[in-house]
């Protein structure tokens, strides 16, 4: 975690600012063997790839990490391997995403036992939820988390509901959640959340974007950082982008964002007649890492469909064009 810009309000709390999550925090994929076991050696290389790239944190067992597809035993391997490999160099955030509060709470307890620095939860899903039930969910998880920060993950296509901004701000004021990762793709809503935070004088509340392609503009209007799936492949690129915005060099930031937008075209190589969007994107990230020699196998967890050899080969020229070898 790096120091966030202090908000100019009477309730400004420097201690809260110092703890605010900022910068580049990629949501790590989970490397698997051909037999679909967690490939701990590849995971260690992936973590080194991130740390060498200068990231400010790592997030495991999220959407890119296939957290909801893994067994509890596999999840524990990911947690323990990541905490050991990171060794305190940057914060480790863990997804505790599941259909119910009880199941998320069990994941939370396991993550705390492994020694993570932060927790990330969506609203409960499958059953339709009311804002009052979402509030109960986060309050209960926060009570289980104790002093470990809990972040809300706003991803309507997966959770089936958009997290209400008013509720997120209220939960932030009550110190139930420490911030929000916004993967809604709704830039106007994200910008309003930044304004709502300012108007509420909510110092220390982190707002992170999950978008790979609008990072420069989001940072410019006040978002604290980015959690980019493409950051698995090119963490250093997102660090350069973040640093350029922080330095006020908007030309350099735009050039880096433009390069990353072109690199993001790797998610379009898969034949969408035979797989869904999630398989296409995750398969592309793993293919890129495989071609770069970071992971040993690009297989994805069931029921995702992995890229075939021709699709993996099609990722190579896009890596080359982006200057990744």
From TrEMBL:
Highest taxon listed in the record's lineage: Bacteria
Q: Which GO terms describe its molecular function?
A: 4-hydroxy-tetrahydrodipicolinate synthase activity
Query: GO biological process annotations for this chain's record?
Result: small molecule metabolic process
Say which species the protein is native to. Kribbella steppae
UniProt-recorded name of the protein: 4-hydroxy-tetrahydrodipicolinate synthase
Q: Which SUPFAM superfamilies does this entry report, sorted A to Z?
A: Aldolase (SSF51569)
| Keyword set, alphabetical order | Lyase, Schiff base
In this chain, pyruvate is annotated as bound at 227
């Amino acid at each position: 975690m790096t120091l966030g810009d202090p908000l100019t309000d009477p309730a400004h709390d420097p201690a809260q600012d110092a703890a605010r999550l900022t910068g580049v925090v990629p949501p790590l994929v989970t490397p698997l063997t051909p037999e679909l076991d967690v490939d701990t050696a590849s995971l260690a290389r992936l973590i080194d790839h991130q740390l060498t790239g200068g990231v400010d944190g790592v997030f495991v067992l999220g959407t890119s990490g296939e957290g909801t597809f893994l067994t509890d035993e596999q999840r524990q391997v990911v947690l323990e391997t990541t905490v050991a490999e990171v060794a305190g160099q940057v914060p480790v955030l863990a997804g505790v995403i599941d259909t119910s509060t009880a199941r998320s709470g069990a994941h939370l307890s396991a993550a705390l036992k492994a020694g993570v620095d932060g927790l990330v939860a969506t609203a409960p899903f499958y059953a339709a939820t009311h804002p009052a039930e979402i509030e109960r969910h986060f309050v209960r998880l926060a009570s289980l988390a104790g002093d470990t920060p809990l972040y809300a993950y706003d991803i309507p296509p997966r959770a089936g509901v958009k997290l209400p901004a008013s509720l997120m701000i209220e939960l932030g004021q009550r110190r139930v959640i420490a911030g929000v990762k916004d993967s809604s793709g709704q830039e106007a809503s994200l910008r309003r959340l930044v304004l709502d935070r300012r108007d509420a004088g909510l110092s220390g509340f982190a707002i992170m974007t999950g978008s790979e392609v609008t990072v420069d503009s989001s940072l410019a209007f006040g978002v604290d950082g980015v959690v980019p799936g493409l950051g698995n492949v090119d963490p250093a690129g997102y660090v350069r982008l973040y640093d350029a915005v922080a330095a006020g060099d908007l030309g350099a930031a735009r050039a880096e964002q433009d390069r990353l937008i072109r690199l993001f075209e790797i998610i379009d190589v898969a034949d969408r007649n035979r797989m869904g969007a999630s398989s296409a994107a995750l398969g592309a990230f793993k293919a890129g890492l495989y071609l770069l020699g970071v992971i040993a196998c690009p297989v994805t967890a069931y029921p995702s469909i992995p890229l075939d050899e021709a699709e993996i080969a099609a990722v190579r020229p896009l890596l080359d064009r982006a200057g990744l070898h």
